[in-house]
Design goal:
The chain is of the alpha/beta class and 327 residues long. The chain has two domains: 3-209, Class I glutamine amidotransferase (GATase) domain (Rossmann fold, 3-Layer(aba) Sandwich); 221-323, Homeodomain-like (Arc Repressor Mutant, subunit A, Orthogonal Bundle). It is built from 14 helices and eleven strands. It has helices spanning 15-35, 88-95, 98-107, 119-124, 140-146, 173-185, 187-197, 221-232, 240-247, 251-262, 266-284, 289-295, 301-312, 316-323; strands spanning 3-8, 44-50, 56-57, 63-64, 68-69, 78-81, 111-114, 132-133, 151-152, 158-160, 164-167. The chain is globular. The mean pLDDT is 90.
Length: 327
């Protein structure tokens, strides 16, 4: 059975976000036709859809010409919403008009899949209230603030709640396409698409790719002071109580300030700093893993490995094999 797919032609973003998604969906069936069964019914019938007639301008002078306008289209089986531009707020405002259309299609029975920050449009349309979702890890804090009724899981690469599928950032649209091929076209078609596009369809976590954000974009001077103490000596033995004493408040008050300012506990923030330093050491040096653990404040190798796995999704040695210096 062929699934009708409407790829939303968002304005003002990188063309790869939209054109790449559409091309990858088309590639699923082309690969199957070339290498498996040239007479098979296609899994997807893909259309690039604009809000209205006329071309859509992307960044860098790229112009896309949608196949149809949304008002002229019957509700598709699947709506695919690409990621917004890196400059998120103006990109969201420029494409906000899509939200009522996406919501109307969803109410008519269309499934919705979002790539990267396309999840903001689905959330604004009300599709994710009370549900679990993911988006690019960079945008997760902002997403959580704007849509507190959505259970954001930025460590996940893909979240499928049945009627809505969300996926992580940037070029993970390729992973999303392989997932959609599995769900709507079958396992064999998804495996072949993965091989032809050289995409690891088994990626399930964004954690190995997360870079450390210092979270200094707040105005709480008390938290800034505690952050500075942690960052000056991350391997030191300062407890949360010690930090609270240095900034002149109780441990409980310090915790409340951290939660309000950066949505983290002081202990978790310190652990993140330590693991981020360890990640850089594993990426740049060949020093023994246990020695790196000690340098970032973990005397117990097991505790270091457990913390590293929880924050990156990989053990230290697996992380080095993936991102470390070549032999």
């Amino acid at each position: 059975m062929t699934t009708t797919v409407a790829v939303a032609a968002l304005a003002g973003g990188a063309s790869i976000n939209t054109a790449g998604l559409m091309d990858a969906l088309v590639k699923v069936d082309r690969a199957w036709g070339m290498l498996a069964d040239p007479d098979a019914e296609p899994a997807f019938r893909v259309s690039l859809v604009g809000l209205r007639d006329g071309p859509i301008e992307c960044r860098e002078g790229v112009v896309m010409h949608p196949h149809a306008a949304a008002d002229h289209l019957d509700p598709p089986d699947l709506v695919v919403v690409p990621g917004l531009d890196d400059d998120l707020e103006p990109s969201f405002e420029r494409n906000r008009e899509w939200c009522p259309r996406i919501g109307a299609w969803h109410r008519s029975g269309s499934k919705v899949a979002t790539s990267c920050t396309g999840a903001f449009l689905a959330a604004e349309a009300g599709l994710l209230d009370g549900k679990q979702a993911t988006t690019h890890w960079i945008a997760a804090r902002r997403f959580r603030r704007l849509y507190p009724r959505v259970r954001v899981t930025p460590e996940r690469m893909i979240v499928d709640v049945g009627d809505v599928i969300t996926s992580g950032g940037a070029t993970t649209f390729l992973t999303l396409v392989v997932y959609l091929a599995e769900r709507f076209g079958g396992h064999d078609r998804a495996v072949l698409a993965s091989k032809v596009m050289l995409v690891d369809g088994e990626r399930r976590s964004q954690l190995p790719y997360v870079a450390f954000a210092r979270h200094r974009d707040h105005t709480d001077e008390l938290v800034h002071a505690a952050q500075s103490l942690m960052e000056e000596d991350p391997a030191g033995q300062l407890s949360v109580g010690d930090l609270a004493h240095h900034v002149g408040v109780s441990s409980r008050t310090l915790g409340r300030h951290f939660k309000a300012a950066i949505d983290e506990t002081p202990r978790r923030y310190l652990q993140t700093i330590r693991i981020e330093i360890a990640k850089r050491e594993l990426e740049m040096t060949t020093d023994p893993v246990d020695r790196i653990g000690v340098r970032v404040g973990y005397q117990d190798p097991t505790a270091f490995r457990r913390a590293f796995l929880r924050l990156t999704g990989l053990g230290p040695r697996d992380f080095r094999r993936k991102f470390g210096p070549s032999a």
